[in-house]
User: Fold this.
Amino acid sequence: MDGNQAGVSIEDVSKSFTVRSGKRVEEVHVLDHVSLHIDPGEIIALTGLSGCGKTTLLRILLGLERADSGRVLVNGAEVRGCGEDRSMVFQHAQLFPWRSALENVEFGLEVRGVPKEERRRTAMETLRLVGLEDAADRRPDQLSGGMQQRVGLARALSVDPAVLLMDEPFGALDAQTREGLQAEVLRIHQETGKTIVFVTHDLDEAVLLADRVVLMAPNPGRVDEVFPVGIARPRTDLVTMRGLKEFSDQRYEIWRRLMAGARPAAAATAPAGS
Assistant:
């Protein structure tokens, strides 16, 4: 898995959807001329208020949606649909309930025609990467929510994508499990060097994981400001990082800008949580 990474260029991407409610038809402008360059091996966090187009942009990166205008390039090649160079971790693991953890991880390899022995070996290696080799034979209903998300992460990584996309992958988990998986992503990135783009509403998570935090503004969705996170790697975990002044300062700057867009008269004191 080491070394398979890619740069991403988002060039002037716009997207609208037609929404029908009874006899009423409305055109909703979701993304407006979004541009962003992502270096190979970089972790980018997309954050912002609900409705700013974060998930739509991620789906365009994956190839599930097509931009109305503009384009996305991965290693210089234009994205025209889903491809083997990208994979996604969703908010809910969406595992096949009749398959074991190992068989769920194998699925993408199976679809690509990888021989059984090779895909089983690769799937087991990937389960080992996320710390679940001992749970290989368990079905999803025998796994905790956090373990299911680890299987989903392993499934995405098993096909060795150059770009890993994550759509609020820990949003439905309890705080303790979430923080454990955040540390897991840091460790996996250190081992694999993958290019990662993830959506989150959690500013602590964004500053902990990302090299840059992209704050998006809504109506229509656009890049408001890009915040470089000047905290050296390797990083460890959220508890440790919260003790660093540079972490709290960085988080506050993003929160202040976010609140300025949401409520110009926002209070001057940031909340304790995200």
